[in-house]
Amino acid sequence: MGVFSRFMDIVNANINSMLDKAEDPEKTIKLMLQEMEDTLIEMKSSCAAKMARRAKTHRAIEEQQALSDRWQSRAELAVNKGFDDLAREALIEKKNADEELSKLKAEQARCDDLIQLSKNDIVKLEDKLGAVKLKYQSILEKAQRAREEQKANEAFREASESETLKRFRDMEDRIDRMNADNDMNRTAPASKSTEEKFKDLEDSADIEKELDELRRKSGK
Fold first, then answer.
1. HSE of 38, CA atoms in CB hemisphere, 13 A
2. Would you give the distance in Å from CA 6 to the centre of its chain?
3. Cα 86 from chain centre
4. Which of 36, 141, 170, 208 is the most buried (most CB within 10 A)?
5. The model scores a pTM over 0.85
6. Mean pLDDT computed over every residue of the chain
């Protein structure tokens, strides 16, 4: 189903307002463009038909004018030769030709008016179509930027989550190694100095603190 129903709908349409209300602006404006281009083709075709009719009428006018002139010449010839009745008949034929000529000229004037109106409407529609094409290009560029930003954000989030998980696993590995060392120290004769023991204890506390922070960030 189209978004426009007639030519005036198009030229009077508030494109921005229509797009603001649309669920899918990109799809809606594509539909608008298609309808406007189809309408423009129809209007140009109609205008061409009017111009063809005008050309045909113009040829008929020339032929009718020639006929009127011929009857005028015949009437003059008949008068000069003293055939007044024949001249009278020629003038009657000329009068009929002139009446038809007047009708054809009126038809040509109507064609000129209709052609001018069609050309004006075509210009209006072409201007509107140009504006909508610019709007469509703007929407495409905005959509492309949005997709690129979304892709970049996803990549950044994945990288951050991967780095956090890696650090978390490194901390767990370090704790596992320290626990293993502590188990060995409990079963083996003491070989570390008091300074070294306190240093190990302090390192363990720092690691536990950092591990808690990683757990908090990762939601565990």
1. 11
2. 19
3. 71
4. 36
5. no
6. 81
